[in-house]
């Protein structure tokens, strides 16, 4: 029986690793078998075929389920050796499915709820691209297996409400309704009627016996006919097939042990060696892996004949169109002349306006702060049912759901998502930003209101630790542009990095133009650069980001007026600076000078610029509720304070 | 009309500040008026009366609603002057309600959804304390006003599912169902049937006209009779009473302007000067503020006569019982003898076991990782309906909801909550940890699996940036104990700080005892201390935390064997170290020595110990899936690497 092949591989893999989660793969083996063999549109020989159905294992701890499926259906990278090296150094079969490690894994999962939330983005991208290129090129489904944990996480509500609102009918969630969590029965901590809950958000729902292939088949067929997203509650036994432990939470997160495995194999009539699949069964599964190839070939023919063939290929590749930055470059030249003073969130809006038409993959949105985030480009249509043609998403007050959906769209391909919220609420979306960094998705988080400069809303809305906290995430580019020129440059860099997410940190309050001469190159790309040279041999170096660059320039002018040669370094991105050659870094840092940094955040991380002896002018704790200018004064983030700090060290 | 007093004050306050949110207070003025005048048990002259009902404005942007109510009912601190200084420096009337600024504000709100999630903790604490001290001392309700934003945030699902499961029938949520968000109509981003959704999680629900006092009164009376938590959907018009802007999202987040306010006042027949309440109306409202005093006095009499009077007072004060740490102190003496090697998560479990009986306020729990977090003390009962007597909560897979509920319990008083999850998922609960730090709640986050040392689960589960990110939060004590002695010490410090939350970062993997002599004092309290002195004048200083302290000791032994005098500093808490006298800090840091830090996390923040020239042995990016010992080797976090780094700098 095909499903037993999954069960045995799951037992074997976890047993060999002495680590892992056999219960879920065993429980969902039947559902997965029917899905893969009768419904999922895929071709194991072409894992990256653009019009494949997407399969997302939101309950990522059950990774042996997807590894088994990929192996059984003949994905080239999912070798027996990989299964035998489950959870070992250098293997493609990591403890949780990792995007980029193994073809067929569409998204990194494990942090619960997020696979489900990412799947909404996949489904959005699919419909949006179908509207752009036509159903003949884009017409596939997104199938998700989710567990109780996924549904308990709050993110699930954001995901299902957004999907329900958008009527994403090609999204189907298969809930592993096994009534078991790590601590025991689901009833210990939950009494939610999940069917009613999904229904309340506009989903079509159905409950089935997750071990009855007939019921599964019927339900999946039903799902393909709905006009709204679908939830199928699959009543299963965790660890189904385990001789004595079936149905117990003990099968969830540990190897079953030799004895139990032997007994289970015997009960299944399974005599093959560990990791070995009997020839007949192997043939049957491989056939499943090949079944989609006729669809793929037909699609390739359609693609070849399609008027937008090359444009589709380009869009899916993630390459930017030719001339993507022509308007941006022109605008840069204009800005050094016009020197506009504005909030950097407005500057970001200007940047978007220069690229939005030129890069049709850009899809924006906001977590209900459109006007504040300056994320909306004039005349853009809203992405909504039934056409999904618009390029702006009303994400609702769902920062985390937005960030996850953005990742999903980026992973699907053909879309470059950006989304706005207040910077302080990057805490809400943080787990998805982390996944973006881990997977390397090109998403741009537009984080406005980036300091006490937002004023009266007070400390709950004022980031102080967030620059440090975001900079702490590996492979995330954190930008804090100082003016419109830098904002355009930072956007350009963000969009040019195909495998790096960005956080664009932007002010609510107005700030003067500081880049007032044409450098002829994108200086922000270096992460930090000398914005103003000292008059003579520099005695003082001032480092600043964002709105505080103007303060540093002001302080420099005051110091120079007293005959103290002072240079100013703008630091739009720590991460990009860290990638520069050491000689460049040393020149910018200028260790021989008195070094002072000014940023309306915490000091953490700044010593790489100012050393132990340098001074930091910034925040030391939470902000307060008052007008912005009062707060800067009260918290001592002023040119005067910078001057004093420098002079105290001369 | 009483409700109009709220409306006018809201308009006046926002107008004077030229900043704020009048729409919500105006829309919910009727509901709030009925609640405060007919149902809410409170005495404005005794804001901290233990048995008062708790009122939580989850939609915190509508702060003028609560400020108006507190002013109108006669709370001493809520003066007219405070209303006039709404959102100004030093005022009690911050942009969003801030706990500790103004009596009557039970919790800081503004980050949406969190007031609702905190309210669950209030309701839990109430029932739990009722079981401990009897209904004659503890018998009050928790009333919440929540907006559309609160209900869209994922955290709301965690909160309502937990409350529903626990049948917290004294919790009532009044939903401001105004169908408006910042970007426009709720329908732009949501189509959820909220009544059905709450019902699905076991709530009793009802929809009313939120401007019909008769309906409001009937619904609130109904709510007090239910056996499960209640949701009342109050259909309202945002900005109700605004002459031309009523019902428009334009009333949400900005001053209405002189003209609109004048017209609105005229339509209401309101002629008093700004911030002035007509005498009759003032009298009526003040009467409301005094109505509860008879209940309060009756309660005081009951309290006076109560057998557990002093114990109740102590528990509510937050003071620990005498002898709270007797068993812990004894255990410490034992540990330096027995020198047990164990995972620090086990050490934390040992610490809990020594204080759990002695501190009856401790209420533990886990987000479904009880066995992994070592949060469960043997023989503890589960907190559940109908008695709520147990001291362990099955929070379910809801890290954020757990963290918020913990804050709510701590704010209610009489409970010291701790809760466990994997450290990487502190990202999920981060927004509530931040609020804990901002408000100063004594909650302890038990964060196990604190590094790549968790092994095979891989990078989705391995914190690398989390130590830096948690250390970035002001007023949060981040502990990373090196062994069982330090774990006990850190727990003691955490529990002794009444207004500081703690994060206890703990290993999955075993580590040897490193504190093997009785210091006679709690050394962890200093944040960092010399664990091992150099043999002779120190040439090298090694700094480490947690499981890496053993690596540092190993490296020191190797260096000493080569004749290089090396000291080792254990750093259980950056925050506590930063509070030490400068002379102590300098002595510990020992700038003249070669300095090397080792921690299985990122470098960010470590320069304060090692300076620009020091070496950091740790992570530079995400982890990987493999057994722990392999990962330490592959990522080069070894004694050998520490030795090399030191020698390279000698």
Describe the structure.
The structure is a homodimer of 650-residue chains. Chain A folds into three domains: 2-297, Thiamin diphosphate (ThDP)-binding fold, Pyr/PP domains (Rossmann fold), CATH 3.40.50.970; 326-511, Rossmann fold; 526-649, 3-Layer(aba) Sandwich (Rossmann fold), CATH 3.40.50. Chain A is 42% helix and 13% strand. A six-stranded parallel beta sheet of chain A has the order 10-9-11-12-14-13, sandwiched between helices. The first copy, chain A, has a five-stranded parallel beta sheet with strand order 1-2-3-7-6, sandwiched between helices. Chain A has a five-stranded mixed beta sheet with strand order 16-18-17-19-20, covered by helices on one side. Chain A is α/β, with parallel strands linked by helices. The mean pLDDT of chain A is 97. Chains A and B meet through helix 7, helix 8, helix 9, helix 17 and helix 19 of A and helix 7, helix 8, helix 9, helix 17 and helix 19 of B.
Produce the secondary structure layout:
2 copies of one chain form a homodimer.
Chain A: H1 2-17, H2 23-27, H3 29-39, E1 54-57, H4 63-73, H5 80-84, H6 114-133, E2 142-146, H7 148-152, H8 154-165, E3 171-177, E4 180-181, E5 184-185, H9 194-200, E6 204-209, H10 213-223, E7 230-235, H11 258-268, H12 279-291, H13 293-305, H14 309-317, H15 326-338, E8 342-343, H16 344-355, E9 362-366, H17 370-373, E10 392-394, H18 399-412, E11 416-422, H19 426-439, E12 444-448, H20 466-471, E13 477-479, H21 484-496, E14 502-506, E15 510-511, E16 529-532, E17 540-544, H22 548-561, E18 566-570, H23 574-578, H24 582-589, E19 594-598, H25 607-610, E20 615-617, H26 628-634, H27 639-649
Parallel strand pairs in A: 1-2, 2-3, 3-7, 6-7, 9-10, 9-11, 11-12, 12-14, 13-14, 17-18, 17-19, 19-20
Antiparallel strand pairs in A: 4-5, 8-15, 16-18
Enzyme class (chains A, B): transferase
Pfam family, one (chains A, B): Transket_pyr
Family (chains A, B): Belongs to the transketolase family.
């Amino acid at each position: 029986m095909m499903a037993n092949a999954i069960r045995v591989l799951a037992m074997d893999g976890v047993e060999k690793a002495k680590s892992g989660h056999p219960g879920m793969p065993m429980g969902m083996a039947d559902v997965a078998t029917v899905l893969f063999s009768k419904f999922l549109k895929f071709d194991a020989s072409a894992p990256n075929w653009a019009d494949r159905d997407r399969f997302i294992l939101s309950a990522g701890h059950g990774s042996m389920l997807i590894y088994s499926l990929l192996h059984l259906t003949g994905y080239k990278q999912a070798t027996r050796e990989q299964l035998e090296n489950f959870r070992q150094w250098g293997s493609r079969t990591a403890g949780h499915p990792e995007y980029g490690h193994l073809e067929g894994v569409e998204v990194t999962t494990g942090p619960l709820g997020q696979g489900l939330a990412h799947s909404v983005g996949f489904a959005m991208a699919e419909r949006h691209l179908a509207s752009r290129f036509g159903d003949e090129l884009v017409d596939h489904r997104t199938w998700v297996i989710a567990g109780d944990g996924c549904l308990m996480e709050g993110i699930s509500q954001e995901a299902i409400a957004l999907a329900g609102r958008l009527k994403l009918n090609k999204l189907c969630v298969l809930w592993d309704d096994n009534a078991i969590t790590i601590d025991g029965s689901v009833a210990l901590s939950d009494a939610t009627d999940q069917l009613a809950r999904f229904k309340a958000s506009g989903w079509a729902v159905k409950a089935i016996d997750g071990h009855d292939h007939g019921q599964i088949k019927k339900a999946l067929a039903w799902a393909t006919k709905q006009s709204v997203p679908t939830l199928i509650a699959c009543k299963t036994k965790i660890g189904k097939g385990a001789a004595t432990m079936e149905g117990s939470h003990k099968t969830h997160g540990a190897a079953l042990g030799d004895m139990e495995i032997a007994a289970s194999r015997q009960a299944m009539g399974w005599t093959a060696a560990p990791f070995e699949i009997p020839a007949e069964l192997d043939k049957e599964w491989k056939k499943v892996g090949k079944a989609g190839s006729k669809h793929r070939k037909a699609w390739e023919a359609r693609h070849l004949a399609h008027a937008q063939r090359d444009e589709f290929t380009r869009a899916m590749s993630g390459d930017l169109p030719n001339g993507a930055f022509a308007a941006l470059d022109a605008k840069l030249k204009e800005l050094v002349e016009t020197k506009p003073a504005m909030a950097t969130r407005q500057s970001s809006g200007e940047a978007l306006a220069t690229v939005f038409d030129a890069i049709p993959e850009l899809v924006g949105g906001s977590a209900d702060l459109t006007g504040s985030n300056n994320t909306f480009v004039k005349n853009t249509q809203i992405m909504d049912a039934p056409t999904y043609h618009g390029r702006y998403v009303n994400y609702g007050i769902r920062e985390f759901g937005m960030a996850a959906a953005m990742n999903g769209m980026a992973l699907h391909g053909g879309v470059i998502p950006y989304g706005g919220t207040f910077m302080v609420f990057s805490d809400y979306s943080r787990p998805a930003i982390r996944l973006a960094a881990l997977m390397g998705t090109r998403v741009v988080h537009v984080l406005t209101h980036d300091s006490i400069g937002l004023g009266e809303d007070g400390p709950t809305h004022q980031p102080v630790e967030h620059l440090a906290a975001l900079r702490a995430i590996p492979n995330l580019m954190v930008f804090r542009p100082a003016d419109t020129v830098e904002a355009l440059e930072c956007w350009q860099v963000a969009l040019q990095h195909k495998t790096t997410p960005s956080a664009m940190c932007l002010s609510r309050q107005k700030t003067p133009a500081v880049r007032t001469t044409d450098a002829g190159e994108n200086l922000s790309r270096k992460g930090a650069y000398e914005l103003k040279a000292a008059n003579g041999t520099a005695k003082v170096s001032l480092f600043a980001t964002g709105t505080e660059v103007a303060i540093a320039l002001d302080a420099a002018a005051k110091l120079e007026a007293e005959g103290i040669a002072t240079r100013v370094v703008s630091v739009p991105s720590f991460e990009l600076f860290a990638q520069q050659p050491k000689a460049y870094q040393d020149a910018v840092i200028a260790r021989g000078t008195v070094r002072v940094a000014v940023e309306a955040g915490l000091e953490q991380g700044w010593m790489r610029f100012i050393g132990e002896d340098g001074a930091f002018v910034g925040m030391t704790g939470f902000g307060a509720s008052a007008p912005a200018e009062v707060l800067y004064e009260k918290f001592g983030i002023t040119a005067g304070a910078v001057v004093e700090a420098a002079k105290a060290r001369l």
